[in-house]
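ok so for the tutorial part 2 we go from a plain amino acid sequence to predicted structure tokens. step 1 is just haveing the sequence, like this:
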Amino acid sequence: NLTLRVYNTTGTQIGAGVTVNTKASAFMRIDITPINASNFALAWVNSSSAALSIYTNNLTLVAGPTVVSANIAAAATNSTDVSVTATGSQIVVCYMDDVNNDASARVYNYSLVANTAEFDADSTAAPDRMGDNLVDCAAINSSLYSYIWFDDGTGGDSISFLLYSPASTTAIAGLEDIDVTSTNIGHAAITALKNDSGVATDDKFVMAYYDGGDSDISYAINFSNGRKVLGATDLATAAGTDGRVALATVREVGN
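step 2 — the prediction. this is what the tokens look like for a chain of 255 residues:
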């Protein structure tokens, strides 16, 4: 089962847990994002489909579950992944579709009414790894989010990202590869950085990834307009044969 529990910041459980899905597989993928001080969104992939729900902090179901895509895995062991982020008044679900070999996405409002049809960031991503961090997305500000994924398709083996407005299915700028030597294994993560200036052009985001070609864990930082703050830089140069990555913003001071 997929079970959900909420804890306060001292580790005390708030209320009872709830069972979200009873068809969980050994390779189920899950992600969660806050919407505001009272609500959060949960996205998951079970044995065949991607789904989305909204809960209050006391685990009252507000909306959902809504099926985002009904057929992204032909079997419980297929190569899928999911990420969810909230931007402005909308929720973006990014996911790897192993049936169609796509890195796809869909945008919803807070009532889980779809604002866009399913669309592809990459129609030839061709995933072939189970349980990997294949996709991630992060709200940069209320009108912009970034989508990062591992492209294992023909001519791929790269870590790639695009910037989108949640109101559009067309990327704001062209595809950018931050690493082209991931060689069949790649994990990707992304998060926005706090903007102390309040100026939209100072919005930044950081990407981290595992590069299977070099066995490195690296990161890069960009402004929201695409200008680089820091190009791809290695954090660990001997990270083994299959290194996972995750990112979270704790605090940033200054610009």
